[in-house]
Design goal:
single chain, alpha/beta, Rossmann fold, eight-stranded mixed sheet, 11 helices, 8 strands, 17% strand
Length: 301
């Protein structure tokens, strides 16, 4: 599959996965690859849903080895609600209420309102069209489900008004493959794979979100010796042999987890290396990601 076709399949790419699988690293890798391909990229990081104290910040990075650029923006759920109220002429009142902690009470009284307005901000950024690609480094998988379910939940609870309109527009964005896709990230281990399986079915069946190829991060891609002669030549001591035996056993488990994923979720996969085994982590991730895209068939879905 052509790199440009993969990167421009949708304007918004939301990256999600269980904590610890390297979700943020994957989001950064995609952003870097897109910039090297000449695209202007906005990398949006969603702050922890329980932490409403971090302020929104924005910066732009350019480097000599990229053609395009990557902008970085951090969004906090509480900020989205404040911005929404301020945009309706309630700026001064909102600041006063926020200082008193009342804005948080409003958010708690309407579960999902923060999430909806956060997605509404992402929708607005996508519509502005200032960047070719908007990459969202989302919360962990469980929280990502709550985030993406917010438009449907509030759409059912609110029959009319600006909140209902916002919910409808966000649902349309999430359901439009040309506008938004979700990239799930896992590691080749049983627990993360099974959590991804459950998440994938929830997203597609309940929410109608379109999924891009799954990223399997931290896979041992090295060619390891397996024959008796190769093992003998590779190991000069008992300690080396013990370490290699462990690595072979670990990779066997990875292959088993990967096969379980293949059988349960009929999506193509992008395999990224375990950078703990190498020194050139960033360059290796980018090169491998590009190589894996070219291996994809059809439209990459």
């Amino acid at each position: 599959m052509e790199l440009a076709k993969f990167l421009t399949a949708s304007r918004v790419l939301i990256v999600a996965g269980k904590g610890g699988v390297g979700k943020s690293t994957v989001a950064e890798t995609v952003a870097s690859v897109a910039a090297e391909a000449g695209l202007s990229v906005l990398l949006v990081r969603i702050g922890a849903l329980a932490d409403r104290n971090t302020l929104k910040k924005e910066e732009t990075t350019d480097s000599a080895d990229v053609t395009g650029s990557v902008k970085h923006l951090t969004l906090e759920p509480g900020d989205a609600l404040t911005e929404y109220l301020s945009g309706r002429g309630l700026g001064l009142v909102t600041r006063q209420l926020s200082a008193l902690g009342i804005v948080e009470v409003v958010a708690s009284a309407a579960p999902g309102i923060d999430d909806l307005l956060l997605l509404g901000k992402i929708k607005q950024l996508a519509r502005d069209g200032k960047q070719d690609l908007l990459i969202v480094d989302g919360p962990p998988a469980g929280q990502a489900l709550s985030l993406l379910r917010a438009p449907m939940s509030l759409g059912r609870a609110v029959m009319a008004g600006p909140i209902r309109q916002q919910a409808d527009e966000v649902r349309q964005m999430l359901a439009d493959a040309n506008t938004c896709r979700l990239m799930l990230v896992t590691t080749p281990e049983v627990t993360p794979v099974m959590e991804l399986v459950d998440t994938a079915f929830d997203l597609e069946d309940d929410l109608g979100v379109h999924l891009s190829p799954i990223v399997v991060n931290k896979f041992d891609l090295d060619t390891l010796p397996t024959s008796p002669d190769d093992l003998r030549n590779a190991c000069r001591s008992d300690l080396q042999r013990t370490a290699l035996d462990y690595r072979l056993m670990r990779r066997d488990r990875q292959v088993t987890a990967l096969e379980e994923l293949r059988q349960r979720v009929p999506l193509q996969r992008l395999l990224l290396p375990d950078t703990s085994l190498t020194r050139s982590s960033g360059d290796l991730l980018r090169r491998t990601f590009i190589d894996e895209i070219y291996k994809l068939s059809g439209d990459g879905t």
